[in-house]
Design a protein that fits this description.
111 residues, alpha+beta, three-stranded antiparallel beta sheet
Length: 111
């Protein structure tokens, strides 16, 4: 009589199965007071919204003047969905921090 051995799955296989089938369904948790990454998008000026990009650059220069630095960027300049981005993540420098306070309870304020 032969003994049947159970094949133990390798560590890589267990991690792969977890990442593929279980992890996508677990919501990410953010704790109160935890630092978070924020991406702020501003619409670029066009004929429809009549915004002045100089106001946005002036706000950026004021923040820089007071020692608050962060990554900025822009994309799709010639299209109506063009945006100016402020990224407040690991690049945020100065006497400022972004922390999680709580979840917005009303749908109207969520945006």
């Amino acid at each position: 009589m032969a003994i049947k051995y159970y094949k133990v799955p390798s560590r890589w296989n267990i991690k792969h199965l977890y990442n593929r089938y279980i992890r996508p369904f677990i919501p990410a948790l953010v704790w109160r007071g935890q630092e978070i990454d924020v991406n702020i998008n501003f619409p670029m000026p066009n004929k429809e919204n009549k915004l002045d990009i100089r106001d946005l650059f002036e706000a950026e220069s004021y923040l820089y003047k007071y020692g608050i630095n962060f990554d900025t960027g822009a994309g799709l300049m010639k299209r109506p969905e063009a945006r100016r981005d402020w990224e407040w993540d690991f690049s945020l420098r100065g006497n400022v921090s972004v922390k999680f306070r709580g979840v917005c309870k009303t749908k109207e304020k969520r945006g």
